[in-house]
Design goal:
This protein has about 350 residues and is α/β, with parallel strands linked by helices. The protein contains 14 helices and 13 strands. The chain binds iron/sulfur cluster.
Length: about 350
């Protein structure tokens, strides 16, 4: 058996950058006192249980209200940014904001401010509850509407002149449908593609991996939009997909059974016209096993050590050989001290 790991699996560069900012802020920090001087994150830095536990172990708490901030505290923003009212409230409490907004999100915000300055109202393809969307639309002097589907684009009561942008992680195919629906209703809309390349690369590579693999393992929090999207994309290819958060979630016997079934099915299709070749290819279980490919990918909020633990679990439980991997950033993440 072979295990192939997507090179784009795991933390995106925006998350890596925020974790590095946290490490730099922590290095050489004076010990916090009960009266303040703590290093805090604004909400969950990354929606991932093991990462949050790791931060807890390092005594880095998260707060979600300025009421919890004390004088001298330093509060790191999420990669999705922070609205001005929260920045002001933290400053009002004597805290300092450390800005870890992802440069891609900051760039989209700049584009939106320019469009608003030109008097264009904004349509945003995304999730209105998401922090990134709140940051993007914060305090605009124009009207804005958030839409999450082509259906919503067909019914939204927007007012021209209009511009359309998207949340960085919106699905590319879904965005095309939304753009088409918006263009039908508002032919003069100005469309700006603001998807994150990191997300698109990850999705493209996952599609390629799904084409090669017999079964797929997607590592990432169950509530993470981008990990769920990766799992959905894998399932859309008809491949059995296991979405797991940690190694213990992965049922190895079922993974093995599904992988062998899928490989046998693929060989039956390949040699449908050649029964001798089919018999030769499928009669020897060891030979069949040698052909099995297990694909592994991970969402943008999955830390390298969790991904590595899942890969190790698959390798030890299946006796498979790692023929492609590890993700290019794995070593760099470790070196940055993301876990330590
Ligand atoms: S997904 Fe893209 S935009 Fe979002 S934090 Fe990561 S790099 Fe930045």
């Amino acid at each position: 058996m072979k295990v192939k790991v997507a090179g784009t699996a795991g933390f995106c560069w925006g998350v890596q950058r925020a974790l590095r900012a946290l490490d730099s802020a922590r290095a050489g920090s004076p010990p916090p006192s009960a009266d303040g001087g703590r290093l805090l994150t604004w909400g969950a830095l990354v929606y991932n249980g093991p990462v949050l536990l790791n931060l807890q172990d390092r005594s880095i708490a998260s707060v979600d209200s300025a009421e919890q901030v004390k004088p001298g505290d330093r509060v790191l923003t999420r990669p999705h940014g922070m609205v001005e009212a929260d920045r002001a409230a933290i400053a009002g409490k004597g805290g300092t904001v450390l800005d870890a907004t992802c440069p891609h999100v900051a760039e989209t915000r700049k584009t939106i401010l320019r469009l608003a300055g030109e008097g264009r109202n904004l349509l945003v393809a995304g999730n209105r509850e998401h922090d990134e969307v709140r940051t993007l639309l914060d305090g605009l002097p124009v009207k804005s509407w958030v839409i999450s589907s082509a259906e919503e684009a067909r019914t939204v009561a927007a007012e021209e002149p209009l511009a359309l942008v998207s949340q960085s992680t919106f699905g590319p195919a879904l965005l095309e449908d939304v753009e088409e629906a918006v263009r039908d209703r508002y032919p003069n809309v100005e469309i700006h593609r603001t998807l994150c390349g990191s997300t698109e690369d990850r999705q493209d590579e996952t599609r390629g991996l799904a084409a090669e693999a017999d079964v797929l393992v997607v590592v990432g929090p169950y509530h993470s939009g981008n990990a769920r999207r990766l799992a959905e994309m894998c399932r859309e290819t008809g491949k059995q997909t296991f979405h797991v958060e940690v190694p213990e979630d992965l049922p190895l016997p079922s993974l093995l059974e599904q992988a062998r079934l899928a490989r046998r099915q693929a060989l039956m299709e390949k040699y449908a016209e050649d029964p001798d070749r089919l018999r030769e290819a499928t009669s020897d279980p060891a030979r069949l096993d040698a052909e099995v490919v297990i694909g592994v990918t991970a969402g943008a909020s999955t830390p390298p050590w969790v991904l590595q633990a899942v890969i190790d679990h698959v390798l030890s439980g299946t006796k498979a050989e790692l023929v492609r991997g590890l993700p290019r950033d794995l070593a760099a993440d470790r070196a940055s001290g993301a876990k330590s």
